[in-house]
Amino acid sequence: MSEVTAASGTVHWIGAGLSTGSGLAATCDAADRVRLWHRTEERAARSLEALGLTGRAEPRAYTREALAAELAPGDVVVSMLPVPEHAPLLAVCVERGAHFACSSYVSDAVLDQVPAAEAAGAVVLTECGLDPGIDHLFAHSLIARAEAEIGADSAASYRLTSYCGGIPAVPNDFKYRFSWAPAGVLNALRSPARYVEDGVETTADRPWEATRPHLIDGEAFEVYPNRDSVPFVEQYGLPGTWKPETFVRGTLRLDGWLRAWDTVFEELKAGDDRRITALAQELARTYPTTDADRDRVVLAVSLDVRAGSGATWSGRYLLDLVGTAEESAMARCVSRTLALGVRHILDGSLPPGLGRAAETAERSERWLAELARQGVPFTLRAG
After folding, report:
1. Domain 10-126 carries which CATH code?
2. Is-contact 220 212, C-beta < 8 A?
3. What is the pTM of this model?
4. CATH class of the domain at 134-329+361-382
5. What residue stretches are annotated with the Saccharopine dehydrogenase NADP binding domain (predicted)?
6. C-alpha dihedral over 92, 120, 14, 274, to 10 degrees?
7. Are the beta carbons of 211 and 200 closer than 8 angstroms?
8. What residues contact residue 272 under an 8 Å CB cut-off, 6+ apart?
9. Which of 131, 135, 295, 304 is catalytic?
10. 136, 9, 110, 134: which is closest to 354 by C-alpha?
C-alpha cells in the first residue's frame, strides 16, 4: 500500500447548498486554512456571512480550472456538488496530489479513479454523511457487539434493517419536507430496490409498492427499500456463518405518506421524463420550504441475531433530531459527519485509497463518540 500524502492543512469546501451547515465551522476549527468555493465569490462571501464565518474562510468563485490553479499536494477537497461532478473533481485531486471527501455513494466513475488516487497517496473518503455515513457507523458497531456475544464462527440467522428519513418536524398534508432537490427525490423512487426478505433476494421495481408500517418507540412511520442493499452485506463484514433472513437499507417517511403521494406515484408509473421534471418543479412551488419550517431526521438501525444454539442478541441505534432556526437537522448530520472525516484526513489517520465513512468497528466507535460530543446525539439499546 502507498503511503498517505501528508495533509497540507488547507481545505477547499466546494458548494454551499442545503447540506452545508455547522460542519463547515468545525472544518474551520480543524484546518489551517479553508476556502469556500461557490458559483461566484460574492455568493461564497454571503454564505460565509450567513454561517457566521466571515474572516474564517476565504470566498472563491468556483470553476475546476480555478480550483486546480490553487490546489496543492496534501490539500483536502470537500465536494458538496451533485454526484456527476465528483469524478471530474476527483481527477483534478489525483492530478494535483490532493485528498477528496464527499457524503455521497461511490459512483462507478469515482471507483475507476481509486487505483490512481491510492498510488498518489490520496484519501478518497466517500459515504461520509448521514445516509450514507452515520448509518454505516451504527451498523459496524452493532455487528461487532453481536459478534462478541454470539460468536463470529457460530451458525446464526439475522435481521438487519436500516431506515433513514428527513421529514417535517410538524407533519403537513403532504407528509414530507424537501431536504434536497425534488427532482432527485422523484428519480430515486424510480430506481429499483434490491434487498433480502425471508432469506431471499428480492427486487422492488417500484420501491414505494414495498412500503410497510414501522413502529419506533410507539410512533408509527412508513418505510420502503431504497437502492441496492445486498452489497452492504459484504461491505459491513457480516460473518459468513450468519445467514440473512432480512437485510434492508431503506427510507423512512411519516405515517400516511403513501396515501398522500398517491397522485405522484401515478405520474411516476407513466415514466414520462419531461412530465416528471415538470412535476418536480410543481411540487417545489406547492410545498415550498420556508424559514419557519423545521425538519426532523430519523435514523434507526436494528440488528437481531439468533444462533443455532438458541442464543439471541438484539441492538438498535436511534438518531432523532429536530432542526433549529440556525441549522436544519439534515445539514447538521451531513456536514458534521463529513467534517469529522475531513479532520481525520488532516490528522493522517485515514489510509490512502477508497474509504466509506469509518470502515471498522473500532474506528466507528471512536467516530460515534466524537459525533455525540459535537452535537449529533443518538441512543443505543443492546442486549
Report:
1. 3.40.50.720
2. no
3. 0.95
4. alpha beta
5. 11-124
6. 60
7. no
8. none
9. 131
10. 110
What digits encode the pLDDT tens for the residues 265-301? Answer: 999 999 888 999 999 999 988 887 788 889 999 999 9
Fill in the amino acid letter for 158.
Y
Assign 75 to helix, strand or coil.
coil
244 Cβ neighbours under 8 A, 6+ residues apart? 157, 158, 159, 160, 196, 199, 233, 238
State the DSSP code for 85.
G
For the chain, the structural domain boundaries read 10-126, 134-329+361-382
Cα separation, 169 vs 289, in Å, equals: 12
Give me the amino acid identity at 216: I
Q: State the cell numbers at 308.
A: 443455532
Is position 131 annotated as part of the catalytic site?
A: yes
Q: Which tens digit of pLDDT belongs to each residue from 44-95?
A: 999 999 999 999 999 999 999 999 999 999 999 999 998 999 999 999 999 9
Q: How many residues in the chain?
A: 383
Question: Which stretches in the chain have pLDDT values below 70?
Answer: 1, 179
How far separated are the first and last CA of the chain, in Å rounded? 39
The reply to whether domains 10-126 and 134-329+361-382 share a CATH topology is no
Radius of gyration of the chain (CA): 21
The pair phi, psi for residue 134, each rounded to 5°, is -60, -35
pLDDT at 179: 66
pLDDT at 184: 85
